[in-house]
Amino acid sequence: MAKPVVAIVGRPNVGKSTFFNKLAGKRIAIVEDKPGVTRDRIYADVEWLNYNFTLIDTGGLEPESKDIILSQMRAQAKIAIETADVIVFMVDGRTGLVAADEEIANLLRKTGKPVLLVVNKVDTSKLPDSFYDFYQLALGDPVPISSTNALGLGDLLDEIVKRFPKNDVEEYEDEAIKVAVIGKPNVGKSSIINTILGEERVIVSDIAGTTRDAIDTPFVHGNDKYVFIDTAGIRRKSRVVEDIEKYSVVRSLGAIDRANVCIMMIDATEGVTEQDKKIAGYAHEAGKATVIVVNKWDAVKKETNTMNEYVKEIRNQLSFMSYAPILFVSAVTKQRVHKILETVKFISNQHSMRVPTGRLNDVINEAILLNQPPSDKGKRLKIYYVTQISVRPPVFVIFVNDRELTHFSYTRYIENKIREAFGFEGTPISILYREKGEEI
Ligand SMILES: Nc1nc2c(ncn2[C@@H]2O[C@H](COP(=O)(O)OP(=O)(O)OP(=O)(O)O)[C@@H](O)[C@H]2O)c(=O)[nH]1
Ligand SMILES: Nc1nc2c(ncn2[C@@H]2O[C@H](COP(=O)(O)OP(=O)(O)OP(=O)(O)O)[C@@H](O)[C@H]2O)c(=O)[nH]1
């Protein structure tokens, strides 16, 4: 099932990031007592009861200038409208209702999405008189909370999860490869999608009757079924949002969560940027298979070594993704575009590959002989047995005598040996340790 997205919207300084940090459990955004502080981390995974959802702090997306607060609001609301399943509209219980709140409420009411009106900074059990003014926003009963004192958060989370879309079942047959084309604005996402879909051999299929039809593009290529995830947002241009680079991260998040394979696009004329690193990092952490596609290759002046230098630079900048194949393409001249689906299919298979336990243990035993496991204070790590517990992404469990003795450099060594023996190209793999007797 797709993970629901919850967006927090509200004026600067109402406490969005304080709330975000409380739910995210860690102080991952910077809170400052001045409006419009930019923050780096804008999304977090939150678990409540049996629900998992992605929380987005749209405040983190605000440009620093205070002059354009209203347009920031519009942009925030817009992103919330496009990506969120539930919108948390936060107001300030200490300042009470202000005109800008009404402005935002007007925008949100038009979205048709569930909106929860949350009054923050209600730090005691007594509601301030100004609380009742918020009923004027016509967004239902306001929910009082105190982010700093962690009051009312449980009740609020209950209200949030109640509003998640029902029956949000997996919409496509499992055999279809779900592909997210991700990257910053203007890198050529829609050009690439249109070039691939425009190829003669590709037939756009009509898998009817799903709610996702409008935003995804299913198609058939050769004998294989694919779905481009969230293409509506990419193909339909909404400039307000695109102009702010950080929004591209948010736009990509939902698509990444729902995909198996990511096409991570880099602009050859710009090289790897900070935004690229963030987006790629998310795909990596989410355990998706990824192919790095360097687009606009036609626009690059080439010398003998240009491509090698690009490869080196990308490996350097996106070092956590050394498993990802790199393609150099041009959506304009169509050079090597046909390689993209070929690679997507290949890494999708690698992503779902399960290796036989016997072979796996042979490989690990050999690795141990070549390079002894680490030891500490005279005690050496013993590796008893390895098994692959899941696919998409591949996860391995290694049974050991004492987890404390494991070391990341040895884990990386084991990972390399597994990759040498079996490939797993294009996919991250995870290695977990269990002590004997522990459950998997
Ligand atoms: N008394 C009280 N203060 C709060 C509460 N939540 C946040 N604050 C304070 O309000 C100020 C603004 O909080 P932030 O979390 O930075 O607000 P924000 O909405 O993310 O602000 P921007 O960065 O401008 O978007 C900080 O000084 C917080 O300590 C609360 O529940 N009670
Ligand atoms: N030279 C060159 N230009 C390209 C190539 N691919 C795309 N462009 C140009 O780059 C610009 C952006 O392309 P889009 O396909 O709209 O990019 P996008 O990533 O979908 O953009 P957003 O919708 O803003 O996220 C357009 O002007 C394209 O003509 C390419 O391979 N070579």
TrEMBL record:
GTP 2 binds at residues 183-190, 230-234, 295-298. PROSITE patterns: G_ENGA (PS51712). InterPro entries: G_ENGA, GTP-bd, GTPase_Der, KH_dom-like, KH_dom-like_a/b, P-loop_NTPase, Small_GTP-bd. It comes from the Bacteria. Residues 4-168, 177-352 form the EngA-type G domain. GTP 1 binds at residues 10-17, 57-61, 120-123. Keywords: GTP-binding, Nucleotide-binding, Repeat, Ribosome biogenesis. It holds the Pfam family MMR_HSR1. GO terms for biological process: ribosome biogenesis. GO terms for molecular function: GTP binding; ribosome binding. Associates with the 50S ribosomal subunit. PANTHER family: GTPASE DER. Belongs to the TRAFAC class TrmE-Era-EngA-EngB-Septin-like GTPase superfamily. EngA (Der) GTPase family. GTPase that plays an essential role in the late steps of ribosome biogenesis. This is GTPase Der. It comes from Crassaminicella thermophila. The lineage of its organism: Bacteria, Bacillati, Bacillota, Clostridia, Eubacteriales. The gene is der.
